[in-house]
Write a structure and sequence with these properties.
mainly beta, 3-stranded antiparallel sheet, 54% strand, elongated
């Protein structure tokens, strides 16, 4: 929400009282599972939400990445 209106052009991560969410085209994409980047790093998303307690390997089109506490460990 920007200036009291939904920004239907926004794609990225957004915070609310329930956690960090992957927003695509102004709405949460509950179908997305994978990695999403923001200015703080690459984050593991499951069903649209950042999963901070996930630690392990994930595979995306560009390769496999090790995730620690929800963030790609580079």
């Amino acid at each position: 929400v920007e200036g009291g209106k939904i920004n239907f052009n926004y794609t990225g991560l957004a915070l609310n009282e329930y956690g960090w969410w992957y927003v695509e085209g102004g709405k949460i994409n509950f179908n997305h599972t994978g990695l999403v980047a923001n200015e703080y790093g690459w984050w593991y998303i499951r069903h649209g939400k950042v999963v901070f307690d996930f630690t392990g390997w994930t595979k995306v089109s560009s390769g496999r990445y090790y995730v620690h506490n929800g963030c790609v460990n580079r």
